[in-house]
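Sat 14:20. Reprocessing the chain from the morning session after the first attempt stalled halfway. Input below, unchanged.
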Amino acid sequence: MMRSICRLFTILVLCTLLPQADGNERPNVVLILSDDHNYNALGCSGNEAIRTPNLDRLASEGVYFDRCFTPNPICSPARACIYTGQDSWNSSVIFNGKPIPEGMPTLPHLLADAGYETCFVGKWHNDGKPWTRGYTTGKRCWAGGKFDHFELALTPFGSDDPEDRKTAEAYSTTVFTDDGVEYLLEDHDKPFLLVLPYTVGHDVFKAPPGYEGKYDPAKVPLPANFMPEPPFRQFTPTIRDETVLTFPRTEAELREATAEYYAMFEHLDANVGRLLNALEKNQLADNTLVIFCSAKGMSMGSHGIIGKQTMYEEGIRTSLIVRHPNLKAATHRNSNLVTTTDLLPTICEAAGVEIPDVVDGKSLLGLYDGSREGREKIFCSYHDPRRSTITRAIRTVSHKLIQHLVTGERQLFDLEKDPYELDNLVDKPEFEPLATRLQLELLDWRMGTLDK
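Finished this time. Tokens:
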């Protein structure tokens, strides 16, 4: 009798500690990624000029992390940071075209190995294809070919035949949402991970059908730190992102572009609403972790820059919203320093999957429920192998030091007093000790990576 009781107790303990085999016991995960998304282009960020009611609602039901950063603000590295949970110097994906090393743990591999169905829809901008990188199923994706929101070249999941690549029948956001909704409304016999990266707000800035004229350029506010050109020498106006608008920048042209840009995100917001409605319709919302994050930022005229290849907030700061199905949020707006490398460990912890030792990120669930403290500092970099622009930055809760390695220029900002990074303190004697300390910390970080 006693032996039977002990055996039953052991079984109960194991069932409590181990991830459950029944798919209904582990949360589904929907990871939605926007592209080139200025962190201020959200209603919940405090921007009253843009309309994003669905994302605002998602934030009110979960947590809006308003100080999230990408370690490297360009396409392939930024996405590799999300999929590997590692800084780009540790994953070795420091620029576009650099591959994620074979055998490196990635989000879809980890969840697929744990019994999840892993589905990909949308923009793929890393090496290989989604089906060679751990995704077990999917629908249409942009994996090369013509890039145009109105006529995107799309490949069906699993096909390596160029003849299968077809031009999308509608605006990219609509097409990807159609496929995402279709997947969410299917029957699922095990937990799933749906990763859905959109192409907006990547240029060209053009409003989707039905959204033309939604924003009056004359009423679109310019950034508080708008400048015709950057206040430093290490800048290359011939980088593709910077050729979208004329240089030096003009207020009128920037207002026109921003009006189109905001319309793209209002349309994206409406499509996020479609995804959330599909979860509700298929009775999945109560067991689905939903994360919305921008892969990287976009300057949109701040400091005279259009693109994201900058260590200013507009380049490295991203939009991050997390809604956990059964974890109580300590606050609906969290200002701790977090990075996009935190997404992988967050999803792994929620799914009961062991987090690999090589992961640099930290799960956000402790910040979500208030059970752990945040970071004191983060490091970011942009490294153009053509050596036109090479920048490094250390950002603390209150300050940021930027180093432009080609020209030797340095910038130091007090982000509490100067959130728009307009007053460079680096040459002021009273700030020399702080600048020296941050520079040494930045150098120590660099020496600890491949970045020598």
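The two ends are 66 Å apart (CA to CA).
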